[in-house]
């Protein structure tokens, strides 16, 4: 049992916290009403429906003329052929992004003049003027203007969208918008967020991309802890990717903020494009639009076409559900266009269960710093904590995760990597249920606010993890929480000699944790990601066979 001083240990050592509402209080809140269907505006006349008519020219009369029955049968046969043709044509139409509808260049939502609060809105006067001057491609909708000024507006709801958001578009509709892709010959650039590698990986990418080649871009590496060795992280990413058996041709560690790795992706795209369209795909909020902005920024230094495209670049924002439709960008000289796409909303990420108001708190704002429990000896002295044993304690990560420590070694350490805005609290397991009931929405946030805490279904998924601790000199594994971050499990953080024990085997075997999360949220147990200075010290490269060496995608940063 831990001493009293441990019982409600918040991470007050970490002074940073995110404002929970990022909306500017001086500006009026957007008021949403569920829209009647927004009016779509067609810029070019949509492709004329082909007219299928049966051949009515006369076949003559007399003995050689077809009987009424023959005429009927031939009409029926023609109609079957035509139906098949129609189907084929429909399929052909479905395999291209519909460029006949004019969309907002910021988010890809069709422009409309009917619903002020809905995506794609532009006032009639501006619309008419822009149309007259053939400048509709330069129109930014009302929602994008607000997003560009830091407002947080998600427009996606349901089925892995956001229960608290104003639901103009469903996650399923967004998926539909990408469904043509697998029938096309295209180059796919798939983005994965390093902070949520497993949660954002989009394992079913083949359903979207078909057999098209994939360049894998890992985003936001600027958020990895200080001292991280990218060689080790690159190898870790390739190891994790190889297991997924995808047609990945290369892997790139990038940051759209610091521009690390972006030049490498540009060269790879130029090499592999071969006249095809290039699609940037990925889960919601992994940084697709930010990546396109970074791409255009660097390309425009040498390339006038990219420089021109940069003028009307997609909007990026901290809320998932920024991009709402495919956005075509004329970024390359010659054949092939670049497409930003709406993010795929996955039901198993934390973002799918929290209120839209809380979404910004899931996004790390600065470099991650692991928060370790038990705290190291200096912190123990500072906080007058004696025990370094987690057995019998429960650790809460905001109101989103609870970990009961059933059986670990005396100095086993759990290190939490995730957004600083989400605090970590520790209580004895015997008091954990009551503590959660009392504190959810108050001390344990998100969820925030009384109302959302009342609506909150709690932590319904409970998984008992039995983790192997074979090598006490390196972390055993990470427990990754989809859409939030990960917890590194270090079996032994003090040398074995420090412990008075009669049986050294006490320090090998299994660690037992029970992890509680909201119902749809996925928990991944994975090999530990080697971050920070220490990561570079314990990480071991696997010996590869010649065949593996050939088949493995190369990685760059
Ligand atoms: N630190 C850091 N933040 C990034 C990086 N890339 C994107 N972001 C941030 O991540 C958030 C999401 O970026 P977006 O580009 O809007 O993401 P998206 O994938 O286009 O999102 P959807 O359109 O909603 O699917 C924004 O707040 C970006 O500033 C990066 O490399 N480093
Ligand atoms: Mg986007």
TrEMBL record:
InterPro entries: G_CP_dom, GTP-bd, NOA1, NOA1/YqeH-like_C, P-loop_NTPase
All residue ranges annotated as the CP-type G domain in the record: 171-347
GO terms of molecular function: GTP binding; GTPase activity
PROSITE patterns for the chain: G_CP
Cross-referenced PANTHER family: NO-ASSOCIATED PROTEIN 1, CHLOROPLASTIC/MITOCHONDRIAL (PTHR47569), NO-ASSOCIATED PROTEIN 1, CHLOROPLASTIC_MITOCHONDRIAL (PTHR47569:SF2)
Protein name, UniProt field: CP-type G domain-containing protein
Provenance organism: Coptis chinensis
